Structures are given as C-alpha cells and as structure tokens.
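Journal club prep — side note

Before the paper discussion, L.F. wants everyone to see what a predicted structure for a comparable chain looks like in token form. Sequence:
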Amino acid sequence: MIEIRKIVVTVEEVRHDGGPPLAAPVLKGAVACVLRNPFAGRHEAAITPMMEALKPLGVVCATKLLQALGGDPARIEAYGKGSLVGAAGELEHGALWHVPGGYAMRELLGQALAIVPSMTKVGPMGASLDVPIHHKDAAYVRSHFDGITVAVADAPRADEILFALAMTTGGRPHARVGGLAKEGIAAWDGQR
C-alpha cells in the first residue's frame, strides 16, 4: 500500500528577519514524502487502514527531519504537518496523515502537548503547501505562530500524495506582538 517515490528534506537557517542578527539562528525545516495514492481515480469508502500503514513512515519522516535540525529533541520548539493530494485524489486522502505524522513527531520529541496544526489540499504537480507551525507545548504561544512553504517540483503527480512535517528550533525572529511567551507556559494543557 505504501510506495514511496522520494523524500525531500529542507532546512532554513534564519539569522534575522530585518532586525538585528539573532544570537543563534533559528532552524526551520520540513520533510516531504511523495508516495503513490492507492485510492487515486476512485472513491473508496474504507480508507482508514492506510492510516495504520503510514505510521512507520511518520516515524521515518520525523526522524529524518529531527536529524537535519541537529538531532536534539530538546531544541525543537514548534511543529506542524500537511499534505498535498494529486488531482486524481480526494482531500480526505490527505487527512490520513493526521495520526501518523502528528503522533510520530510527538513521540519523537517527548513532551509535546499541543495539537499539531495541519493543512491539507488538492493541487497540481509543483504546487506549494503552506504548512502551519505553532509551539509544541502550548498552542497559544504567539511568537511561534509561523509556517513553512513546502514544494517539490515534480510532485504530486495526479496519482500521488505529498505528506509533509515541519519543525523549528524557535519562534519568529524579533517576535514582538505580545501574547503568551514560551517562558509563560503554565497550564501544561497543550494550550497555555
């Protein structure tokens, strides 16, 4: 059921965003896995068995991304996930990534209390996917409301799905619009 064509990992090293240089660059990365969509071109009522089959892939992708960001789970502050379904598929096929992608990152990072934000869409080959990102322990940490654009030039083909994960080692450079700061996380409920 899982036929991978390619895995692409990208990492940005953000040194500043128009303000003074940061003391340490923020690393922001994404992994994209392109695979055949076994449901392309037809409506299939029972698609959830694929969610279980994707769980090992979630772990592989999360591990590759963590390694690309230095390998230390304690340095990861924020995360997100998304999927881009080729034109012969359905939006719901992308939703199959919710459990395998999200839980793989949460397990790998240890304490990760916040829901993993997500984006799913259907699009043509070369389309971009804006993966939302927020703090891994408290969704209301405003400095970490961010995103990363994922695109693979030759994917997804009409009969493929691109599944993506994203992680960062910090929030937006020069964040200064208030709200809950990461140092203010107190409820440990995934929100505040």
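L.F.'s comment for the group: The chain has a mean pLDDT of 97. Keep this in mind when we get to the figures.
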